[in-house]
């Protein structure tokens, strides 16, 4: 016996919706794989250029790298300081309030290490780098691509990856590391300042010894790796989206959005990998 | 297009059975095969209407577009098999002046635009290449603009910056995409005369002749230059040694 017409119709609609959703997810997944493949290829090309051409045009390239580090590092210091102090205040404020209630103030240092040093410090600095320098990078490179400047470089026998990408990647990776260390130190200082202003019974010696006890040697290695990876991922993704495909000026904004989304997703994925590494 | 005998010294460019790809050009354009040999000091102008494929020829010779068939040999090397650093090396010997503003780097001054290839290839700072840059700027008559950004100089002067930049690496083969577009008669006469001097051997190149391939929409300004002409109409190439 055939089903009633309405049931058959809605059943068909449901099946077709499910099919559409599955196809959308499938397409999205395939797109993700393709992007990952292209980014991987771009990463390998850039890495080989950085290694093989480290001495090519060094009198011009090294100052460019320093300029990139100044732009991505030194000029971001005030903003990074503001955010680091804010994070220190917030984390200490929240944790001291909670820990005082349960009488576990000796865990303050552990919480600062787990939250600020292992997670928030690198993540917030990476976001700051992405929003301020990453987006600017996509716009600069995308505009250069759209205006034909990349072909002009190639016509002069200048490798665009060496001239445009290598200084940015090195500058951003090193600056992300330096800024993260700076932000973490300021967050810890800001946290203590908040505790001091709130008359929390916590001496600097106790606070520092709690932090020192909570730290492991692997934290330093993971911090260096994590920040370099975040900086590398953001700079690579932004350079790739700006350079890798022919753009018109109108497409630059879309490329910027894409670069931000891809950078965030990749940073979260790598952060997850580092978290697993920490927990194991 | 005429083919010169290969026993003449210094073959710079050889195009054998070259067919340009017509994608992005006017509908229905099918290019004939182009067979051509350019020797040291040749000065050839390709004349064709807008959208006829002149720029495609320049792009193809510069390696920015692939031909649909045929072989391009520049300085004896088949460009289809060149990869990476080999292309970079070859491009230093092939100068390219782009159309419309010459794709200058807008954030760099005129001086820096010209100095860039010198600094990169000679591993020198912008200050260290000063004498070479000043010589190039003097040669093309734009030293008065050297500290200005390209956007701050007149449109008709910008192609000269592109020319100075292209000559910085002392190329043996110079490609120019419609260099006279939008220029007045006086400027056009300067270009035609200067390119003629280059092809005969300029003192900047210590008298070595530069092979020149330029494109234009209007052959009028080139008539007294003594250059060879190739006409491109609806995908067909026809050549004359001297325009009558």
What would your notes on this structure say?
The complex is a heterodimer of chains A (about 280) and B (about 240). Chain A has about 280 residues and is an all-alpha fold. Chain A folds into 2 domains: about 1-50; about 60-280, no CATH class. Chain A has helices at about 5-50, 60-70, 75-100, 110-145, 150-155, 160-195, 205-215, 215-245, 250-280. In chain A, α3 (about 75-100) crosses α6, α4 crosses α7 and α6 packs across α8. The longest helix of chain A is centred in the N-terminal third of the chain and has 48 residues, at about 5-50. Chain A starts with a helix and ends with a helix. Chain B folds into 2 domains: about 1-95 and about 175-245, P-loop containing nucleotide triphosphate hydrolases (Rossmann fold, 3-Layer(aba) Sandwich), CATH 3.40.50; about 105-170, no CATH class. Chain B contains 6 helices and 10 strands. Chain B has helices at about 55-60, 85-90, 110-120, 130-140, 160-165, 185-200; strands spanning about 10-20, 35-40, 45-50, 70-75, 75-80, 95, 175, 210-215, 230-235, 235-240. In chain B, strands 6-7-8-3-9-10 form a 6-stranded mixed beta sheet, sandwiched between helices. In chain B, strands 2-1-4-5 form a 4-stranded antiparallel beta sheet, with no helix packed on it. The longest helix of chain B is centred in the last third of the chain and has 16 residues, at about 185-200. Chain B starts with 10 loop residues before the first strand and ends with a strand. The interface of A and B includes residues 56, 57, 147 and 152 of A.
Quick take:
The complex is a heterodimer of chains A (280) and B (244). By secondary structure, chain A is mostly helical. Helices cover 85% and strands 0% of the residues of chain A.
């Amino acid at each position: 016996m055939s089903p009633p017409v309405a049931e058959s119709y809605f059943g068909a609609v449901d099946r077709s919706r499910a099919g559409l959703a599955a196809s959308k997810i499938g397409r999205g997944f395939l797109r993700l794989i393709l992007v990952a493949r292209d980014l991987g290829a771009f990463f390998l090309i850039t890495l080989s250029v950085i290694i093989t051409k480290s001495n090519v045009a060094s009198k011009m390239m090294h100052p460019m790298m320093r300029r990139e580090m100044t732009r991505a590092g030194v000029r971001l210091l005030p903003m990074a300081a503001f955010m680091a102090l804010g994070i220190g205040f917030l984390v200490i404020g929240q944790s001291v309030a909670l820990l005082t209630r349960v009488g576990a103030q000796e865990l303050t240092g552990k919480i600062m290490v787990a939250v600020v040093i292992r997670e928030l410090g690198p993540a917030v600095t990476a976001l700051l780098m992405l929003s301020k320098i990453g987006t600017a990078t996509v716009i600069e490179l995308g505009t250069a691509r759209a205006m034909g400047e990349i072909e002009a470089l190639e016509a002069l026998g200048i490798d665009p990856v060496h001239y445009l990408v290598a200084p940015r990647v090195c500058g951003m990776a090193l600056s992300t590391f330096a800024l993260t260390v700076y932000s973490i130190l300021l967050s810890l200082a800001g946290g203590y300042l908040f505790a001091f202003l709130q008359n929390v019974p916590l001496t600097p010696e106790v606070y520092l010894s709690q932090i020192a006890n909570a730290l492991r040697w692997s934290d330093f290695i993971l911090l260096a790796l994590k920040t370099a990876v975040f900086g590398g991922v953001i700079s690579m993704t932004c350079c790739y989206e700006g350079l890798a495909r022919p753009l018109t000026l109108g497409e630059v904004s879309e490329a910027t959005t894409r670069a931000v989304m891809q950078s965030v997703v990749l940073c979260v994925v790598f952060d997850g990998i580092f978290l697993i590494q920490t927990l194991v | 297009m005429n083919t010169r005998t290969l026993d003449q010294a210094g073959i710079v460019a050889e195009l054998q059975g070259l067919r340009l790809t017509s994608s992005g050009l006017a509908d229905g354009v099918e290019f004939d095969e182009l067979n051509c040999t350019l020797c040291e000091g040749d000065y050839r102008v390709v004349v064709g209407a807008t959208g006829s494929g002149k720029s495609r020829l320049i792009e193809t010779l510069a390696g920015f577009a692939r031909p649909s068939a045929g072989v391009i040999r520049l300085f004896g090397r088949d460009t289809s098999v060149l990869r990476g650093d080999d292309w970079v090396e070859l491009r230093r010997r092939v100068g390219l002046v782009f159309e419309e503003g010459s794709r200058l780097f807008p954030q760099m001054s005129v001086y820096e635009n010209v100095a860039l290839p010198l600094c990169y290839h000679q591993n020198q700072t912008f200050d260290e290449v000063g004498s070479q840059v000043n010589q190039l700027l003097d040669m093309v008559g734009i030293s008065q603009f050297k500290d200005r950004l390209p956007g701050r100089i007149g449109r008709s002067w910008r192609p000269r910056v592109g020319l100075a930049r292209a000559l910085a690496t002392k190329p043996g083969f110079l490609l120019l995409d419609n260099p006279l577009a939008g220029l007045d008669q006086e400027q056009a006469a300067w270009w035609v005369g200067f390119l003629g001097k280059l092809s005969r051997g300029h003192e900047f190149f210590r008298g070595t002749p530069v092979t020149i391939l330029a494109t234009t929409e209007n052959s009028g300004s080139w008539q007294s230059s003594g250059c060879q002409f190739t006409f491109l109409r609806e995908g067909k190439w026809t050549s004359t040694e001297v325009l009558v």
